[in-house]
Fold these 4 entries.
Entry 1:
Amino acid sequence: MLLPLIALLAIAPTESPAAAAQPPTGEEAPAAQLEPAFLDFARAVEKGMNARDGDALDAHLDTEALFKKTIEGVKVRPDFAAGFKQGLQKGTVLGLGKKLVERFDDQSSFTLLRARTLKGVPRALFRTISGAGLNYLDLELSRDATGKVSVVDIYPYTAGEFFSETLRRSFLAAAAETNQGLVDRLMGKEQTYLKNLPRIQAMQQAFQAGKYEEVLRLYGELPASLKNDKTPLFFRLHAASRQSVQGDAYAQAIADYEKALPNDPSLDLVSIDGCLLRKDHAGALRAIDRVDRRARDPYLSVLRGNVMVDKGDSAEARRHYEAAITGEPSLLVAHWSLAGLALQEKQYRELGERLDAIEATGLVQLNDLESVAAYEGFVKSPEYKAWKKRRAAKKRP
C-alpha cells in the first residue's frame, strides 16, 4: 500500500453487501437458478467467518462425501479406510476455517463474490484476504443425509486443486506405508508418486527448514514423469523464489510450472508478486487478468492499480482503483489507495473528497488527522480547513 492509512480507522462492524449477480460463463449458471437455501448458506458462511468463527465453514463440511471422493478407485483394508475416515471426522486433517481465522487481523475479510451452479453442481466462491495474502475458496455444495446444505469439497486457488485431490495424496502415502502391495497394484502416475514419496517428503521437510538448495537438488533427482507433478513443482517454485526472484532458477521454475499446469490458478497468484519483484509490470497484469477470468473480482483492479503505482503511472493507477470501487463500492482498500495517491501527490482537495467517500461507506469513522505525522501537510493546508468545516456541518443534527 502507498501509506499506512488504515491505521487511522476505527472499523465499525457491518455486514458485507450481497453478492452481485454475474453473467454466466460456459456451463456456469447464476444465482437466480440456484436454490435459495444454497445462497442463504453461503451468506451465513460469509457472516460467520467475518465474525472470526472458523466453525462457520468447518462445521458444515460433509466428511462422508469428501472421504468418498478422496479414496475413489483405491482398495485398502477396511480398518485402514475407517481410521482415515475417523481422522477426517475429528478434524485432524482439515479445519481450514479455523486456520484462516488464525491469520485474520483487523483488515482481513472473507467476501462472497457469487453463488451459482457449475455443471449443475451448486458452488459458492469467496475471496479471502488475511495475513497469508489473497486467496479464493470455491466451495462445492450439496445436501447431507439430513437434507441440510453442506460443503462436500473446497477448491483453494492457491492450491489449484480440490481438497479431495490433496487428501488423496496423503491417503495414498499413508496406505503405502501399511500396505506395500498397494504400490504394485496402482498404475501410472500414482505408482510413480508413491515410489518417490521419500524424496517428495524430503523436499517438504527441506523447504520448511529453509534449505532451499536442498529442495532444488531433490527436485533434480526425481524421474522426468514426476517433475511435472504439482507437489514437487510447487516446492521447487517456492524454494527458487525464496533464494532470489532475480535468479535464473526462479524464472525457469515459473516457466516449467506454466508449461506443466498452464491453467492452474495457483501459478497466477504466485506470479503476480514474482513479476512485480522483477519489475515485469506487463507480466504481473497478465497474471492478474488470468486470475480475473476465473474470479471476476473487483479487488483485482486494486492489484492492477498497485502495479501501476510501482511502474510510476499514477493516472492509470487511479483508473484501476476507481474501477474497483465501481465494481464494489464498499471496497475500502480501493478508497484508501486513491486517498494515498492524493496525499502522496499533495492533491489536498482530492484527498478531502476521498476521505468523504471513505466515511460515506458507513464502514469506518476517521480518527483525528491532526495527530498523524503523515497528514501534516494536509492539516496545514486551506483544503483541510474547508474539509474539517464541511465534515463538522454534516455531523450537526
Entry 2:
Amino acid sequence: MNKVLTGAAVALATTLLIAACGPSSPTGSAAAGQGRSSGPPQASTGPTAGLHAGHAGPFTAPPPQPLRESERFVDLKPPRSYTPAAPSGGTDEYRCFLLDPGLTRSAFLTGNQFLPQNTAIVHHAIIFQIGPDSVQAAHDLDARTPGEGWTCFGDAGVEGGAWVGHWAPGADETLFSQKIGYAMPAGSRVIMQVHYNLLATGGKPGQSDRSGMRLRLADGKDGFTPLQTGQLVAPIELPCATGESGPLCDREAAVSDLSHRFGRQAEETLGMLAEYCSDGVPPAPGPTQRCDRPTPAAGTIYGVAGHMHLLGRSIKIELNPGKPGGRTLLDIPVYDFDEQAIRPLPKPVAVAAGDTFRVTCTHDAGLRTMLPALRGLPPRYVVWGEGTSDEMCLGLLMWSPAGRS
C-alpha cells in the first residue's frame, strides 16, 4: 500500500518480520469467529476475476453497524477539497491530511470506515495515529506545505506514525467481538494518507477529492487488549511478458525510473528487501516471490489481509509452513484488487517467538495489456514500488503482542 514501503523499510532495516506499530511502538479487529465486515469475505472466482478495474464505481458508504457499549462515532474530513498532482513526472501522489478527533481522554479505536469521496482517483488509504509529542511537527509540516496536507510517499511523513486503519477497494469496517482495539492516547491526532492514482491524466491535476473517515471509539478505561498492525513483505521481480519490449524492460532502467518518481529511498528499499528475505542475495526474476521471517515476539493474531496492485494474481500467508502444526492464515488464489476486505480468522491464532511467517505472491505481467488502467503504458520490468503501475506483496496481520496492556 504505501507507508508500506517506508514502513517496510523500517521493518527491513531492523530485520523484524513484523513491523509493529502502535502509540508507543503502531487497524483491524477480529473475533473468535465473530468478526463482521461489510466487505466481501472471499475473492471472486468467476471468469473475470483478476481482471480488476483498479477502481470501483461511484461509492456510497453503507450504513454503519450499531454502536456497542461505551462506543461513539467521530466523523472527520479535511476542511477543503484537494486536487492532487503527481510529482517528478509520475502518475501517483500520496497525500497526508492531519485530523483532530478531539480526544480529551484515552480511548480505543475499535473500528473505522474510510469514506472515499472520489473513487475515480482514490487508490487506497491508510490511517495513522500520532501521539501528542508529534502533533506540533505535523502542524509545522502542514503549515509549510501549500494546499491541504502534505505529500508523503512511504509513511505519514511524521515520526511516530502508527498504522491503525486502512482502506482499499472492497474493504469496509470490520468489527470483532473481543474487547480489542488500537490505543488512542488523550491529545493524539490521526493522519489520513490517501494514495491518488492519476494515470488517467498522466499525473497532471484534474479531479478533486475530499475523502473522510468515521472512527469508532470506545472508552479506554478498562478491559481492552491493544492491537498492532504487522506487515509481511516479499520482493517483486517481474520481467516484461513474452512479446513485450521497450527500454523499461531493462531492470536497471526500470529501477532508475522508479527512483526518479519516488526518490532514492524507493531504490534503497529493493536492496533492503533482498537483505531482509534472502540474506542480500537478489531474488531470481519470476512471477512468484516469497519471504520467510521469524516473528520477534509471541502474540495473538485476530485478522489478516493481503495487498497487491493491478498485476496481482494470488497471495498467501502461512504460519510455520512445512512444519507440524503449520497452517494457512490467508489464501486468495484469485486476487481481485477490488476486493481487499480484512478477513477475521475463525479463531484467534497464538504465535510463539521464533515462529515463521511466509508471505507468497504471484503477479502476471500479461495483465498489463488486459486492464484499461494499464493498457496504454509502456512495458516495464516491475519491482516493489508505490505507484499504481508498480507492484507490492504485502500481508497484513491484526495482532496483539504478548505482554501489552
Entry 3:
Amino acid sequence: MATDPNQPLRYYGGLGVIVFAIAPPLMLSLLLSQDSAPRSVVALLAVGIPVNLVAVYFAVRGMAGSVPEAAGRRVGIGLALVAVSGVLMLGGNALLR
C-alpha cells in the first residue's frame, strides 16, 4: 500500500479552511456589536455563514478522505468556498461603510 505524499498538504489546507472560515464571521459579529455599525451587515452574515459551513464540511471530508484525488478535490472546493465567502463578507462590508 503506497502512502499519499500530499496528505500533509491536505491536512494543513483543511485546517486553513477551518481557520479562515471562522475569522471573517467572527470579525463581522464583533463589528455588529458596536453601535455605529450598519445593520445591513447582518445580510452579509446571513449569506456568508452558510457558505463557510459548507466549506468546512468539504474541508473535513477532504482531510479524512481515503481516495487522494477525491480528498484533494474536496479540500480545493472548501478553499474556493472560503475565498468566495471572505470576499463577499469583507468586501461587502467595505462597500457598505
Entry 4:
Amino acid sequence: MMNEFETVLRSQIDGARRTLDAARRAGHDYEVHLHAARIGDLLDMAAKHGIDTGDWVDPALLDAATLGN
C-alpha cells in the first residue's frame, strides 16, 4: 500500500506524463523537454526516499524527450 507521499508523487508524475504527451502531439519540443525534466526530478525525489518507481515511467519516454531529438 502506498503512503500519502508516494501517492502524491505518482499523481504528479502521471500529470507530467499527460502534459508531456500533449506537448509532443502539439509539436512543442521545448515543452516536451521541460515536462520530461520534471518527471526526472520527481523520480529522483522518489529514489531519495527509497520509493521503487521502476514500473511508473518507461525510460524510453524520457530518453526520447531530450532536446535535439
